[in-house]
Amino acid sequence: MKKLQLRFKTAEGKKRNLVLNYVKSGLDENTVRQAMDKISASKLFEKDTVELYQEVVDAKYIDRTETKVF
User: Fold this and answer.
1) What does the pLDDT look like over 53-65, one tens digit per residue?
2) Is beta strand 55-63 parallel, antiparallel or unpaired with respect to 2-9?
3) What is the mean pLDDT of the chain?
């Protein structure tokens, strides 16, 4: 299964991941960055009054391959 990992910095400067399952393959940098900027600008995600997705860091696809043994 292919996933898209979006990495942000919190308001405290810690790294925070948002992982999306079942994503479209081949998204370009501009498309992903625009979506991440919208997430960051929305200021919807907080935990204990700390903004979780304040600054965009990077994004990457994660491809998990399973090999059945028996």
Assistant:
1) 999 999 999 998 8
2) antiparallel
3) 94
Q: In sequence order, what are the residues at sequence separation of 6 or more whose Cβ sits closer than 8 angstroms to the Cβ of residue 1?
A: 21, 22, 63, 64
CB-based contact 53:8 (threshold 8 Å): yes
Count of residues in the chain: 70
Distances (CA, A) of 9 to 42, 61, 69: 15, 18, 39
Residue 45: enclosing H or E segment and its boundaries? none
In the chain, where are the structural domains located?
2-63
Percent of the chain clearing pLDDT 70 (strictly above): 100
- 34 and 15 in contact (C-beta within 8 Å)? no
Strand, coil or helix: what is 37? Answer: helix
